[in-house]
Design a protein that fits this description.
By secondary structure, this protein is of the alpha+beta class. It has one domain. The chain is built from two helices and four strands. The protein has a two-stranded antiparallel sheet. A two-stranded antiparallel ribbon has the order 3-4. The longest helix is centred in the C-terminal third of the chain and has 8 residues. The chain is globular, with a radius of gyration of 12 Å. It starts with 12 loop residues before the first strand and ends with a helix. Bound molecules: iron/sulfur cluster. It comes from Shewanella piezotolerans (strain WP3 / JCM 13877).
Amino acid sequence: MIITDTGVPETYIATDEWGAETMLRLDDGWCAALDRETLMCSIYENRPWICREFEMGSYECRVEREA
Ligand code: SF4
């Protein structure tokens, strides 16, 4: 969920019926800003706050990658 303005381009934002903004997901279920070739963030300097807080290599990270 996008809760602060970090400059995420509009094209990567989905807005639900209550006005909440999240990163748009493509049909594969992954974030629209993810570079499918490199598996790196294509908007790294403008990524949402939650992406900055999510610890790389944490338990949650490893579970998601294994899934
Ligand atoms: S860090 Fe990952 S989830 Fe966050 S915007 Fe970039 S590609 Fe999307």
